[in-house]
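---------- Forwarded message ----------

FYI, see the AP-1 complex subunit gamma record below. Original note from H. follows.
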Amino acid sequence: MVATSLKLRELIQEIREAKTQAQEREVIQKECAHIRASFRDGDPLHRHCQLAKLLYVHMLGYPAHFGQMECLKLIASPRFTDKRVGYLGAMLLLDERQDAHLLITNSIKNDLSQGIQAVQGLALCTLSTMGSAEMCRDLANEVEKLLLQPSPYVRKKAVLTAVHMIRKVPELSNIFLPPCAQLLHERHHGILLGTITLITELCERSPAALKHFRKVVPQLVQILRTLVTTTYSTEHSISGVSDPFLQVQILRLLRILGRNHEESSEIMNDLLAQVATNTDTSRNAGNAVLFETVLTIMDIRSAAGLRVLAVNILGRFLLNSDRNIRYVALTSLLRLVQSDHSAVQRHRPTVVECLREPDASLSRRALELSLALVNSANVRAMTQELQGFLESCPPDLRADCASGILLAADRFAPTKRWHIDTILRVLTTAGTYVRDDAVANLTQLIGGAQELHAYSVRRLYSALAEDISQQPLVQVAAWCIGEYGDLLLEGSCEETEPLQVEEEEVLALLERVLQSHMSLPATRGYALTALMKLSTRLHGDNNRIRQVVSIYGSCQDVELQQRAVEYNTLFRKYDHMRAAILEKMPLVERGGPQGDEEAKESKAAARLLEAAPVPTEPQASKLLDLLDLLDGPSGDAQHPPPLDPTPGGALIHLLDLPCAPPPAAPIPNLRVFERKGLQLNLSFVRPPETPTLLLITVTATNDSGGDVTHFICQAAVPKSFQLQLQAPSGDTVPAQGGLPMTQLLRILNPNKAPLRLKLRLTYNHFGQSVQEIFEVNNLPVETWQ
């Protein structure tokens, strides 16, 4: 006897009573077989019941694709009970990736033309859920007619459907412009909220719509003023705040309309000040409205006093007990620190207090903001606070904190001694977390401060004697002891406490570094070189140094072994040259922020050289002979052609002699993508030494009001090319024109064929997951010829 089909309630009960997953699968397989048989028999009266059971099975994660065509049949049925289940099935089982969804376009069009509100609502819900671009184009006129229907129920659903259509097909914006102005007069909460959302989508996607809706700014201001001053709708008030959802949406729209527009911003100023001062902040709903008000003030061309008020509001947010509000305040202040630095600076003590937050995300944001607030006026106080935080901060923040302190000291150091002390304290506290260039920067700084050589070597010796576990500190100390060991032994530094150091103590400390299991191979190399240099700076016997160096001649580390062998050779065969070879290092010019003044001096010297008289021919030829030594052996050297005797030309040729031929004209940049404020630009470089190699730098910038997160850029080239993608600088493109994200592509084109590039972008923007695939065929010819 064949078992009868279960009702929906019975099916749910039987599935819930299943003890194991195998029993559940058995029940579902049996019922799916009954559902298939019913679909084949074509029973019109029970089709909607069978599809309802199938939809429940689909919700449990089991395949239900065989019910797609039944959805179409139910939608075409004249019975409301069939249409209801059919439209629900279409929303769950159909999407744009399946061609079957196009078959319901005509049914939706017919239902939208009917006067039955419930049927029209079902059709609009389905269209706004799974409508493809083709369906939106075909049904846009029907939806536009329903925007002005007398029924609020239908108008609300039509507005939400129009929002979906604009997101799918932005070029449909002209169809929905006229009805929006009329819908702004609505008193119905749902219709007005949907209309504001629709206008926002139109303005973000169409410059023409943005210009058109700037005319309704006074009307929007009046609506928001009504919400703030009177009870617009008690039904939608939350915690004493009148309709906060509508207020937030209006503020977002005003932010878009007032951006880079003086007249619209002027109209909003008084209202924004009223909202900022009258909103109750004791509840979360009021804080949400206030935060949107702050973002709007900062994004439009508001008055200076209003911007200070917005920063002060964020400062009050920092004192809130809710961690989420404090995090939002820190993030917003971090965006404003560049444009309103003085206003943000007033809240520096509160920001520093946030460093001690137990929440890791809050302390990280507070650290980033604290580093951004450092300037020449407060560098001493801020650095002291940051160093205190460095001693107790979590390990995952130590690298960022140490690097930030070093960069701040490099930019704003008041004196060289303070700069050296700051770096030494960072190396002592968190030496293993500093950047790779910290050692080189400190050695260059000490080498350039001749008056601080004795002070530096004594400080470093004392620090090294206390702790040899911090490898960057050990490397700098070994270098400094090797260079200025004679000053350490003299003990004539007036800026530190008297310290008597014997030669044996110095040698023993360096041997301890060499023998320590914590020392890296590079650190041992520093110590071995320091010992070698001390052989010319100490006055005692060098036998102990020679013995240590000879031991490392058989070291397993190849580089350290080579260095020891060379030093042994220097002792045995070239002892008469050892003092000259191991003399103190010359001063090395520093790069980075502190090199700006030196660059200016170089430019001034170049201008003086241009005004200098042109040297005579014998002097020029001597200089040519000297420069030839840098390029190759003297026997094979080829002299360049004679210099141009014209005034000014001789100097130009002289300065060009060591260089390669003049570089080719730069390849123009190319913008390949732009959507909702996100822009993707390509810049190109072809190294002269490898003409078949093309370096493409992908730069992503974001001018919109929301961060672009989880950004991934992937590329593909034809098989005749070789592509290598370097790691990107990050996966977040900050809003409001923040720090751009970059990624390097290395493309090898051995055949010099025309280059075609296919890019795929995936990211999250404004809460939506976006994927774009496009091909770039208009690359400049300079990239491959």
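H. also flagged this: The first helix runs from residue 8 to 16.
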